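Sample pair:
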Amino acid sequence: MQLASNVNMGTVSGSGENIGDVIGGSKRSKPIVTEVGKVTVRPKVDDNAPRYNLGGQRINKEARGLVIVNGRKYIQR
């Protein structure tokens, strides 16, 4: 069973049933991810780009929490 473009859910060998159907006993069980496809790594964030918090206030590099840099949200720990 295809969950997304790069994630597949396994099946029980030979039976053709989904693992979620067999393990949980019902079709409402959460699927078990058995395979993850290609993972892409984004380039590192420019250190000189301005940073903002969710309120739109400009913050410094040392600020922790949810930070917006170049229009993307990052968690800075």
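The chain has a mean pLDDT of 75.
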